[in-house]
Amino acid sequence: MSNGLVAGLDALPAWQATAAVLALSFGSAVVLELVGVRLARRVTRRTETALDDIVFEELRVPLVVTVALAGVYVLTRVDSVATATLVDARTLSLFFGRPSLSIIVLVWARALNRVVNRLVEAVKDRGDRFDFAPVFSNVWTLVVLVGTVAVLLSLWEYDVSPLLAGAGIAGIAVGFAAKDTVANFFGGIALYFDDTYKLGDFVVLDSGESGTVAKVGVRSTTLLTRDEVLVTVPNSVLNATRIINESAPGRRRRVRVPIGVAYGTDIDAFEQLVVDLAQGTALVLDAPKPRMRLRRFGDSALEYELLAWVNGPTRASRARHELNRAIYHALAEAGVEIPYPRSDVTVRSASEGTDADGAADGR
């Protein structure tokens, strides 16, 4: 299409081709600014989200600039215009064509970078799910910068092959020198996409360490333990180990309290006593209701387990403590025996042992 347009302009005199191209390009830019922009602004104002407003505001200028400077670039490719000037076609392209394209590239690069950065600023405070958003903003800025430099060098006919080779070698060297940092960085991105945890979640690691997620960084994650100690764990380690998130999908957690009672106990009354006791405990939730389960017949006791729910994993230990105390006092008042292992020990004196041996020898 562009070749056909250039061929059609070549058939016109230089001044007519110039006037037609400039009138078309600058006229289109004015129409786009006065008509298209107003229509787009009306549409974006009707939406509830402000994200489309950000995109519109940042892309408005590049669109207008592109339409305006496209005519200048087209003029440098029209033979009738090039022959009518005092310079050759290469010089015309060097001072007008390539600068026009360069300005277009720079304007679009700046706009695309600002769009992402402003979108990140708009969503990063919407919840813990977007804590990694600034990381992607920095990565995007680096990608836009590298891509813009590569396009400009290619536009001005610079050979980028040596630069790419050097960048590849430098990347390999940096990768070996900072492999832990790179592993932590990509480990953090993997954790973000997997939605493994977020700020405020209570997690338990395979190593036995547990705590509340206090900070999620690019290289590491910080846990606040129950002992009020901050533990920093590299993201690469977290990405390679099993993580139990006790706060997901909901913060509610079940508490298990094992109880043993003697054989012969009225189990119906015992079960009702413990369930009523659990329902009266402040930390135990009313729904789901607490319930008792007879797990097995032990050597010296009927082994029960109380199942109750608490609002958050950090309350489980405190709830278990209060339930154990209340159950012990209640069973003692009700006369329900809590059995425990017993051993009978027979003590014999040395003389009794000798007499017994002698009598055995006489027989």
Structural overview:
InterPro entries: LSM_dom_sf (IPR010920), MS_channel_1st (IPR049142), MS_channel_C (IPR049278), MscS_archaea/bacteria_type (IPR045275), MscS_beta-dom_sf (IPR023408), MscS_channel_2nd (IPR006685), MscS_channel_C_sf (IPR011066), MscS_channel_TM-2 (IPR011014). This is Mechanosensitive ion channel family protein. Its main location: membrane. Belongs to the MscS (TC 1.A.23) family. It is a single chain. The chain is α+β, with helices and mostly antiparallel strands. It folds into three domains: 2-158, no CATH class; 197-245, SH3 type barrels (Roll), CATH 2.30.30; 252-334, Alpha-Beta Plaits, CATH 3.30.70. 60% of the residues lie in helices and 14% in strands. It has twelve helices and eight strands. It has a five-stranded antiparallel sheet. Helix 2 (14-46) packs antiparallel against helix 3 (51-76), helix 3 (51-76) runs antiparallel to helix 5 (89-123) and helix 5 (89-123) packs antiparallel against helix 6. Residues 84-89 have low confidence and may be disordered.
- List the uncertain runs: 84-89
| Oligomer class | single chain
Rounded to an integer in angstroms, the radius of gyration calculated over CA atoms is 39 Å
Instruction: Compute the number of helices.
Output: 12
Biggest β-sheet: count, sense, barrel? 5 strands, antiparallel
How big a fraction of the residues is strand?
5-15%
Number of domains: 3
- Helix/strand structural class: alpha+beta
Average predicted confidence as pLDDT: 75
The beta-strand count equals 8
Note the gap between the termini. 125 Å
Biggest sheet strand order reads 4-3-2-1-5
Encode the helix/strand succession as letters.
HHHHHHHHEEEEHEEHEEHH
